[in-house]
Write the structure tokens for this entry.
Amino acid sequence: MSVKRLALQGQASRSYGNLLRELAITEYKVKYQGSLLSGYVWSFAKPLLLFGVLYFVFTRFVKLGAGVPDYALQLLLGIVIWSYFADATVRGMSSIVDRGDLIRKVYFPRMIIVVAASLSSLITLALNLVVVVAFFLFSGVGIHLTMPLFLLLIVELYALTLGTSFLLAALYVRFRDFRHIWELGLQLLFYATPIIYPLSFIPANWQAIFSLNPIAQIVQDSRKVLISSTTLAPLDVLHSPLVVVPYAIPVIVLVLGYLYFDHAAAAFAEEI
Amino acid sequence: MSSEAAIAIEHLTKEFRVPLERTTSLKQLAQRGFRSGGYRRFEALHDLSIEIQRGEFFSVIGPNGSGKSTLLKIMAGIYRVTSGKVTVVGRLSPFIELGVGFNAELTARENIFLSGAILGLPRSLVADRFDEIVRFAELSEFIDQKLKNYSSGMLVRLAFAVAIQAHADILLVDEVLAVGDSGFQEKCFDVFRRFKAEGRTIVFVSHDMASVQEFSDRVLLLDRGRARGIFSPAGAVVEYSKLNEEHANSLLRDEGGAATPGSADRPHIASIEMLDGEGKPTHAIQSGQAATVRLRIANPQRAPVNAGVAIYRDDGLHCFGTNTVASKASIAQEANIVLDLDYKCVDLQHGTYWLTVGLFGERLGIVHEMREKLYSFHVGQSEGFEGIVYMHHKWRSGSDS
């Protein structure tokens, strides 16, 4: 049984693109609303501070980065990619519940809210990448022909983030535990990903297992195409057919996440 | 469904499953073992069939909890139906309440664009109509202020000004005119008249019987999820009052029967009705007519009792109150009392009114029972007079020498 809608002929479909845009911009604006410095400054502050602390600790006290070429740049790139994933999935998860007022009172495709949240995090990622570029210019790393491949990795990162957000957003409507579960999961994932330490520090037989993680793959591949071709990327570590796994996971997560979200969305208005 | 229908609803039933213990944690879910169960079913709408014609102003009224808003949300596609069929022909406005999605941290200017987007309008269209929206809302000086500094009246004006831009053949409107001064309300009514003239379909949910009466073509009266019937505006007002009386009296009956020992001994109201000049029960009287409020009071202990009756307009304005202490009237100390309050002429203007009734001891400080909004009645339209009351008056003229 259903609610049928027969649109009259000649009518343009509702402009959902505008809604998506407005929601994404609003979210970005409101995030830093009422703060002393402009939102753009704070967008940089968090990953930069994390970078500063980690860099200081791991080059001065724990000589983890000592033998690694361009450790600072590698670390910064890893943190920027990680921050986007962590930030966007946390915000994506609560996006539906946070916009309960809209969901209960207006009809529009629910996925717009999750996509808007992920896009507003993408603005932050873009700004952070500007900082990375600045570091690049100072560090004297040369231009590589592989650099354009980084854009493909960003697409992969976005797919993984959006898929995870779909899944978490729908689950979070039903089970508020996921806030805590995902916090733990992120912490675990942070240390399971070669962000602070280089993958080469891990015993050889563990490297393959670590490389199955798509975040690790994105971080390592990004370092390889942007900074140093000697970085251990999954292609170097994994043997076929396992090498497909980290690249397939984002696609699978996106498809499953979307399907589950779409299935659950019809009941959101009643469940929030 | 006929070819002229804008919305056709056939045998619509909507059931909410209210979890007895809401499962929001995985631990509870694990303990229950993913079985569904522990639900209480609550039927918000039962076997409802209506057809709203294109170009019609269709109102939905009913007491709180009767399913009005649920019906509107199903039409809008926000809620799923449990069974039955809803067919919507044409483009529907997606908003149910005004000001949905407003963000207090943003300026009015930003909110106009945000709100327009929520209504599904392209940005260019909102930009084109921006000045018109601001002028209608009468907020040009405050347009760059943050919304958190707005009064509720300003918010409604802004919300309404944006909402009427919605490109829709069918508008769903829920309780819009509760706030706003009378001047702005008149502007809103002008918009409704224009929409009607343009042949747009409007589904209107309201408690404000005056506007329901003024604009509606037909009125659906809902009572606990069931259609009580579809009436003419004048008929609906009377039916609504009857329904309120039934509810009030069934409440009185239930509580009278189920009262705990001790409290049952205290004086309590057993029933209430309003009679017209000829002694017939009524819910609709003409301004200036006589009317009687008849209370039946159970007083098993034959305790000293005083009573008060207050008349409120449905927007909460206290119009008139009287009590037996102030009127120096005495009440017979019987076990079952009939108490009549005769109004010589009800000089109230057009509108819906409620009676609030209280029972007291020897002093007004001793409250036995206080019943708010126990009974409603309607005063019909009077020709040309305005305001709250009818002042008995006459005009005289002569030459000014």
